[in-house]
Design a protein that fits this description.
Layout: H1 2-8, H2 13-32, H3 42-64, H4 69-82, H5 86-119, E1 124-129, E2 132-137, E3 146-149, E4 158-163, E5 166-169, H6 171-174, E6 180-182, E7 187-188, E8 193-194, E9 199-205, H7 211-220, H8 228-255, H9 258-267, H10 271-290, E10 293-295, H11 300-304, E11 309-312, H12 314-318, E12 319-330, H13 337-348, H14 354-367, E13 375-380, E14 384-389, E15 392-397, H15 399-404, H16 411-422, E16 426-432, E17 435-446, H17 450-459, E18 463-467, H18 472-482, E19 486-488, H19 493-505, E20 510-514, H20 520-525, E21 528-532, H21 538-543, E22 546-548, H22 556-589, H23 595-614
Parallel strand pairs: 11-18, 11-20, 18-19, 20-21, 21-22
Antiparallel strand pairs: 1-2, 1-3, 3-9, 4-7, 4-9, 5-6, 5-8, 10-22, 12-17, 13-14, 14-15, 15-16, 16-17
Helix pairs in contact: 2-3, 2-5, 3-4, 3-5, 4-5, 4-9, 5-7, 5-10, 5-23, 8-9, 8-10, 9-22, 9-23, 10-22, 10-23, 13-14, 17-22, 22-23
């Protein structure tokens, strides 16, 4: 009905429900023989439900020579009216519209979890200017504008907090059930909701670049009509229309009974066949959305059902993507581990290097304290930092800095450092007053559910592969921790792409999961690409078929199972609809089915197909 609604401006589920109620009452009056008018009350159903079907069929034929189910239904309606079967015509129209409404409601329910993002788009923003506070449309906010967000309001654009403290409900973006505390310097995303305190923020991403708009673009690209198997069903529908007309004509010529020919036209309609695939795909997409996956391509789940290997990027995908202090070693007996950690954090307090910032952050988190302020801070690019804290000369950095500072690193310390490096750690040596005091080992830590995810992938019969640009030690350490047997390290973007190309040329369909710009070529080349939507780059997300909004990979085994279950549902729907159609045709040819009963049997099949597809909405992998 979409084409008709566009042309005539019709539309709305409420209108369809009203027409169906009136038609049902009219058909009831027809059965009872009651009619306050000089015509059969079944004509109410023919006009309200049948005329839109006929108009849709005519429009399709005239504008695009689109031979689909509506053409066959229209012929059945007209033929029923011509032979005087008004009630049969009204019932056919009523049941066809009822089936269409059920399909519309099923698809709407499947899309509801996705399209709610559109309604969460903030409409206005409070912009702070020299003249004071003003309310402006959110689309007028520019990068660098200072905005104020009050409790209960949605964050209008992406930005950084300049003043104030609050808690933010980030469920729409990350799926987190609890609010997240935010303070000065923290990032906030558009569409999230301010819970408690007010805060001022600087806009960093606005308009189409904001987080909520990026997610909406992903949502709007989800289209079940893109699936290959949908096109197959549509092609079958076209041939079935031709076959139905031929079968009806032959039956009429052989038996001389036009009612049998009309019944064949009614039961031959391929509605269940056409509904079999798109309803299953959209229901599966709705299920995936609740698990944090946004499906950009309609056939992505169909393709995912056939993959035999999943290639994982390491940093930001299997790991948190941020370095953590995993070990602190002291080489001076008179100084404890805590003292070494505190000196290193004090030296790095004013550092701009990511590792230096990681040391300070981890000290605050792990030691629950604030590093002492250091004097005479000096940044040494490529080596580390020097500082003075409480009268002690500190040097924190690599071996080159130790040598430059005259700090001797004994063989025992080098051996301990090598053991850490074999585990994929990066080291920061600490010199205190010209002596080696110890070192800090930093590493990217695994995501909490990474091991369970890999186990679930293996249980699904898919081979996990680690495909990373990190050096061999770090890659092999992560692979051992997760029991991944195949590892490819030190990969450049073209290396990842070439590996995937080689695997697929050998008949191994590959799913790639990554988050960075360097993963974009591999995501595009893979049979299915899945991007980490939260921490991933815009380019990676745009290159992928599916985006994982909350970055929680533990739902990946469920997605694999859902894709395979969807294909089983589609095959069952197709087999059932074809079997029902052929059985009904044979009964119609022999005269057992009349148009009224034929319409009931045929449309009952369509309803069962829709109900079977709708079960995917609540399906969970056991």
């Amino acid at each position: 009905m979409e084409r008709l609604e566009e042309i005539l401006g019709w539309g709305g589920v409420r209108r369809d429900i009203l027409f169906l109620i009136l038609s049902a009452l009219a058909l009831g009056c027809s059965i009872a023989g009651y009619s306050p008018f000089p015509f059969d009350m079944a004509w109410v159903a023919i006009i309200l439900c049948g005329v839109p079907i006929i108009l849709e069929a005519v429009i399709g034929l005239v504008t695009a020579f689109d031979i689909k189910a509506d053409v066959l239904v229209s012929m059945a309606l007209v033929a029923s009216v011509v032979i005087g079967e008004d009630f049969a015509a009204g019932e056919v129209a009523f049941i066809m519209q009822l089936g269409a409404l059920l399909e519309e409601l099923t698809v709407a329910r499947a899309r509801a979890g996705i399209e709610k993002l559109v309604h969460l788009t903030p409409r206005t923003a409070r912009r702070l200017t020299e003249a004071g506070e003003e309310i402006v449309p959110a689309e007028q906010v520019r990068v660098g504008d200072v905005l104020r967000v009050l409790p209960g309001e949605s964050v209008p654009v992406d930005g950084v907090i300049l003043a104030g403290q609050t808690s933010i409900d980030q469920a729409v973006m990350t799926g987190e059930s609890l609010p997240v505390d935010k303070a000065v310097g923290d990032e906030v995303s558009s569409g999230t909701v301010n819970q408690f305190g007010s805060f001022d923020m600087e806009a960093t991403k606005v308009g189409e670049d904001s987080s909520i708009q990026r997610m909406i673009r992903l949502v709007q690209s989800a289209d079940a009509g893109k699936a290959k198997i949908v096109g197959l069903a549509d092609r079958w529908a076209t041939w079935i229309v031709v076959a139905a007309v031929a079968a009806a004509a032959v039956t009429w010529l052989v038996t001389g009974e036009v009612i049998r020919a009309v019944t064949i036209l009614v039961v031959f309609c391929p509605c269940a066949l056409v509904l079999a695939t798109p309803t299953a795909i959209m229901a599966a997409i709705g299920n995936a959305t609740r698990c944090g996956f946004l499906v950009r391509e309609g056939d992505a789940l169909e393709r995912l059902a056939g993959v035999s290997r999943i290639a994982f990027d390491k940093t930001g995908t299997l790991t948190q993507g941020t370095p953590q202090v995993v070990a602190v070693r002291s080489f001076l007996p008179e100084h404890s581990r805590e003292e070494i950690y505190g000196w290193a954090a004090s030296a790095e307090l004013r550092s701009e290097h990511p590792l230096g910032k990681a040391v300070v952050r981890c000290y605050r988190e792990q030691e629950a304290g604030e590093p002492r302020t250091a004097e005479e801070f000096q940044m040494l690019p490529g080596r580390g930092v020097r500082a003075v804290s409480q009268g002690r000369a500190l040097a924190a950095g690599n071996l080159a800095l130790m040598e430059e500072s005259g700090v001797e690193v004994p063989p025992s310390a080098r051996a301990a450092a090598e053991d850490c490096q074999k585990e994929g750690c990066t080291l920061i040596y600490l010199g205190v007053d010209g002596r080696l005091a110890g070192f800090l080992a930093l590493a990217d830590t695994l995501r909490p559910n990474a091991a369970d995810t890999i186990q679930g992938v293996k249980a699904a019969g898919v081979v996990p592969v680690l495909l990373t640009g990190d050096h061999q030690n770090a890659a092999r350490h992560i692979a051992r921790s997760l029991h991944i047997d195949e590892v490819h390290s030190d990969c450049l973007p073209e290396d990842k792409l070439n590996w995937i190309d080689g695997q697929q040329a050998a008949g191994q369909l590959v799913c790639m999961i990554g988050d960075g710009i360097n993963d974009a070529p591999a995501l595009k080349k893979a049979h299915v690409g899945i991007a980490m939507g939260g921490v991933g780059s815009d380019i990676a997300v745009d290159a992928a078929d599916i985006a994982l909004v909350n970055d929680d990979i533990r739902s990946l085994p469920h997605l694999l199972g859902l894709a395979r279950r969807m294909m089983v549902t589609i095959r069952c729907n197709l087999a059932f609809s074809m079997a029902l159609n052929f059985a009904a045709i044979l009964l119609a040819m022999t005269g057992i089915l009349d148009p009224v009963v034929g319409a009931l049997v045929h449309n009952a099949g369509s309803v069962l197909v829709i109900v079977n597809s709708a079960l995917l909405l609540r399906w969970r992998k056991k």
